[in-house]
Amino acid sequence: MRTVLVTGGSSGIGRAAVARFATAGDRVWFTYRSGRDRAERIVAEHAAAGAEVVAFPFEQGDWVSHQRLAAELPGPVDVLVNNAAVGSKTVESQVDGEAEQAAAFFRVNSLGPLWLAQQVLPDMLHRGGGVVVNVASVGGGIATFPGFHVADGMSKAALTYLTRHLAAELAHEPVRVFAVCPGAVDTEMLRASTFDGLSPEARDALLARLPGGRLIRPDEVAELIHWLAQPAAALLHGAVIDASMGLGAHPGLLTGPAAERSAVR
């Protein structure tokens, strides 16, 4: 049985990834920043289905919290899914001030995944195998989306660089590294950053402009993450995957003249 660690596993893509790996029979550990009751409900739901799922409180990008998590994990990690992140709106609920928010993007979205990878990689190499999947974003990881926080895109670009850098270092090692760059996924984070401030008519118009005329489901991204953790994905070692249904190839669908957006802050 493999052990999978999913950060930010209590909602959105992370929650879907926890479910996908648990359903496949993996032991799953996930982290959450807040919402202990929700995390406990997720654990109980999977336990009722016979899966082994454990939740850990975690403040990604805080060195003390990283050290605490390392001490609390019951054993080695076979698959690391670096999913936890802050977005253009969710960062506002965590820190105040322009400078502090910009720093938070890099601390949570870039530095935290680096520390986690450095934490698990030595043991993966010692045991002869492992997988790291970094969940970045089509914004910054693949394409440029003016109107969203510039530090948000920069932090995701840094995460895709981390993916390529680790993949190069591990080219002759049995550990595979990938980045997944989702597009417009139906999550609380996307709704807060993009949809909540729009009128119903504007929301419908925005959805119509997206590839396929719809949002991506979290379970669709989780399926891709799960597949990357399988041996068949070895050929894609180091790949930064555009998982946006084509939004990365045509970012103007979201940010063109018809899009309602604010100025870059």
From TrEMBL:
The question of whether Zinc-finger is a record keyword is answered with no
An example Gene Ontology molecular-function term: oxidoreductase activity
Tell me which InterPro entries the record gives: NAD(P)-bd_dom_sf, SDR_DHRS6-like, SDR_fam
Q: Which SUPFAM superfamilies match?
A: NAD(P)-binding Rossmann-fold domains
Judging by the UniProt lineage, the source's domain of life is Bacteria
Q: Which UniProt keywords apply?
A: Oxidoreductase
Has UniProt tagged this entry with the keyword Transport?
no
Which family is annotated?
Belongs to the short-chain dehydrogenases/reductases (SDR) family.
Per its record, how is this protein called by name? Short-subunit dehydrogenase
Q: Which organism is it from?
A: Saccharothrix saharensis
